[in-house]
Amino acid sequence: MKTFKAAAEDRDFAVSAEIFLKPDTGAEVIREQASLLKPAVNGVLLTDNQFGHPHLSTLAAASLLLANGVDPIVQLSTRNRNRIALLSELLGAGALGVSSLVLVRGDRVPDGFKPRPKAVHDLDAAELIATASKLTLDERMSALPEFYIGGLITPHAPKPGWKAAKLIEKIEAGAQFAITHVCMDIPLLQIYMKHLLAIGLLNRVRVCVSLAIIESASDADWLRAHRPNVNVPESQLARLRQAADPYQESVRICAEQLSALREIPGISGAHIVATRQLAAIPAAIEAAGLLPGR
């Protein structure tokens, strides 16, 4: 099985996924989730206190994945740490042997979180990417980390003259790949990728598209209401509402999306999240014909 970095760089349609990290998630649960995903994916993304919900550190989770032969993709958010703490996390990631990073600003902490934490944002996402990139070149390091650095992007239909300034800023800071927010709208992705191709950015960055296995229309309604960057077409919600078995239908939808993504020029892979059952992820990958040889 190739690592996430190797699959993305080889344009071998990298497939990554997320495990569930919650306040009560312990080491054994992480090992079980990693074992379930290991035969199907090139890497596993570890989110950094996603939606503002605390859980064990991404580096602790990464060490568990590495010990179980799974390539971790570590997310770090500028929301939670100042630049000293972020640099410490990056050095720790390098020491563990983590290669792939997704460096982000971070979600707004939900209003109901009490006592209310203070967002830090000492650095923005591009500055954190630049910091990680500089570490890979710092001759003062006893062993240079070999980071594969990524950021987040949001697919949309670009207006005339759109120059992708935020993406270019991240690329120039050192980003080598980008993972999109969840986008299940294939026609929109075709438009977006065509534009990135036309302005020459796909020679400089790999793009992986996030898909969600949404097991009920109510899950999709919640995502669309609370996560403004999530794009799930109404036609897919209708399929879930009408399905005799919404779980199986959600797996079919994801498999169809995976097959469609492989036909869009410039897309280097897919990142899959599940709303309820992690087993849906390898099921969708297998249904799309991507499991053998991964």
UniProtKB/TrEMBL annotation:
GO terms for molecular function: FAD binding; methylenetetrahydrofolate reductase (NADH) activity. SUPFAM superfamilies: FAD-linked oxidoreductase. Keywords: FAD, Flavoprotein, Oxidoreductase. One of its GO terms (biological process) is tetrahydrofolate interconversion. Its cofactor is FAD. Pathway: Amino-acid biosynthesis; L-methionine biosynthesis via de novo pathway; One-carbon metabolism; tetrahydrofolate interconversion. Coiled coil: none annotated. It catalyses: (6S)-5-methyl-5,6,7,8-tetrahydrofolate + NAD(+) = (6R)-5,10-methylene-5,6,7,8-tetrahydrofolate + NADH + H(+). GO terms for cellular component: cytosol. InterPro entries: FAD-linked_oxidoreductase-like, Mehydrof_redctse-like. Pfam families: MTHFR. PANTHER family: METHYLENETETRAHYDROFOLATE REDUCTASE, METHYLENETETRAHYDROFOLATE REDUCTASE (NADPH). Belongs to the methylenetetrahydrofolate reductase family. This is Methylenetetrahydrofolate reductase. It comes from Woeseia oceani.
